# Entry
Amino acid sequence: MLRLRRVLLGLLLVIALLAVGGVLYLRTSLPQLRGELTITGLSAPVEVLRDRHAIPHIFAQAAEDAYFALGFVHAQDRLWQMEFQRRVAAGRLAEVVGEAALATDKFLRTLSVYHYAERIFDNLGSQAQGVLLAYADGVNAYLHTRRGLLPPEFLILRHQPEPWRPADSLAWLTMMAWDLGGNWDDELLRARLSLRLTDEQLAALWPPYPGDAPIALPDFRALYRELPLDALWAASPKPLPPGAGSNNWVVDGSRSITGMPLLANDPHLGLQAPSLWYLAHLSAPGLNVIGATLPGLPLVILGRTDRIAWGFTNTGPDVQDLFIERLNSEDPSRYETPDGFKPFTLRREVIRVRDGAEVILNVRQSRHGPIISDVVGRAAEVAGADYVLALAWTALREDNLTFQAGLNLNRARNWDEFVAALRDYHAPQQNIVYADIEGNIGFYAPGLVPIRAAGDGRMPVPGWSGEYDWIGFIPFESLPHAINPEAGVVITANHQIVPDDYPYFLTHDWAEPYRAERITELLGQLERHSLETLARIQADQRSLMAVEFLPLLLAVRPETELARQAIARLIAWDGTMARDRAEPLIFAAWYREFTRLVYQDELGELFYDAWEFRPRFIRQVLRQDQGWCDDIRTTALESCEYLAARALDLALEQLRRQHGDDLTRWRWGAAHVALNAHAILTGTPLARLFDLAIPSGGDAFTVNAAGFNIRRPGFTQTSGATFRALYDLSDLDRSLFIHSTGQSGNPLSPYYRHLLEPWRDVQYLPMTTRRSEIEAGALGTLRLLPGR
# Structure
């Protein structure tokens, strides 16, 4: 017995040693943070100081060396993320994960993102090309000098990264424009819905923004029946999750306790692990910039220099149009134009599929753009149709100088240089708020926005006549902007930023103004503000959407004890979506059920593609029912009040099953969990290691935005303020920032999740460039030395 016990103890010891050895072996994938490395490609030594939060502060003697070092540290900390992103953009993900990514690869090859990225690089100036080449050299230097394993994803997928190329960076910049600057999917959805709904019903689902006139939609149903709209919808990648948006605002010295401007910014994007953002500081002669970078890009996207600070929100313009091209019935390789039939531009793409056969994709392009209907088969050959669908998009231009604009923004010293930098900005159009140490504030919304000969881009239109063609772009000087407004404040939150008489068309699809109204309300509560009061505004979780629709719910006459308890709690609720309260959970579940009951019957099988919060539509339904509350599947005549009561019963029954019979124990945060999901490994047994989740408050309409997908079961938060920053122009080194997960993309690192809880709790890190403060508690200094 004693011998057996000794054997078992020995085996346990061996297993433990093997486990420890395995972990230690895997930890060789973590980056070197201190010491010296000799690297080919530098002109002079570079120091990389990692502060106590693992933020790299790069001190270089030449700007290109700073960008080289940024490429190096990006690769150290986020190599898998960079590899995944560039393969998505290039339509080459199937080479790594197999047939599961083939549909996405086909779409992105057809979209031609990488094709344009290569040509954009060729058209950039020598300075911008030099920066991109230096950055690529830095990434590749890491690949050549690393001593340990690659990050775990490479081991799991048995994949080796290729050398980095400048076009990889530019392609990812275009993909960010894709996420933020498109409405083509709405056009496609409207076309599909037009085959089921009347013109009045279709217009009601997208009612006009307050102040806008009712929208007349063109009727091209006969053409839409000739196109593979449903198949294209199923095959195409969708844009950002519902609830994506952003806030920024700036107050001048008359509204701050320091007498100098204060600026706040928090972009709301899809949650992911690792975070989309990476905090970094670059210092070199003529360059001192700190803020949020995107791994894969040698730019500080959101941040500050020594003299200015800026922040982005999405303008949300309509810069994508779907054009229906008519084919030559005798020669489908040609399509009709105002000048007769012309041949498509053709390009042959070879898609390699892991553990599968190569796929040949023949990409066609018309004068309007790529033929995206080819993603689901050559329409003329497969469906016998006479029409195909082309996508026009402002980002797909060889003269796209957005990267150049970003470089110049990182060096701007005043309003004039800020505006000059933005002249080169193409896509995605952003509301960029500004403040400087001279006390000036303002904003500009740069980007290419098309002027249409006719129409407003809400539906796919015929492309052969030229009637709906783009005939130019809004002049830069006429784009929305302001400098030192009389009110002393600028607020943008994806809502309408132009007056009703603005002479150009931007979009019909402005975000609901709830967040902008709440920010305005909170700023108005104090005469003067500080970083602390701005932080409280960024943390605010009162939903004005809930405040607006709560009276309809409170008017319900409860018929069960659970409903009576629910109504009793909601009577005293002010609409704050706190994670430790039951009321937000009850309201969110009720509102979801109510919207489903209102229009699921009319939309039928298309409902789940069109299901969104749609407050404007619901508001209009409540004011003038127009039959939406009547269930067309029954003989009874249902009212909106009946649906409100029915929705409450259904919602409470669902919550009772999920959270128990005791309503007092229900909590919004138990259901509303911020899920930062790993792009590849979420949903697998390894998700526990790679996904990052934490209970959260808020909703899509709170200043502290926390959107969930109404179409999915539960209330998992899928979007939010992925980065927050506060800038004090009286002392820019007092500025603050944070992002949503951690600096590292390696789950074995202590810096993979170290920002998750502070981010949830709206805490911040210091955004200082003072070397003495950086060195206090620093993790180490890595010296990169130039080799021969």
Notes: The chain has five domains: 34-178+777-786, 183-238+320-393, 245-318+401-458+469-538, 544-575+582-666, 729-771. Confidence is low (pLDDT under 50) at residues 13-20, 378-384. The longest strand covers residues 262-270.
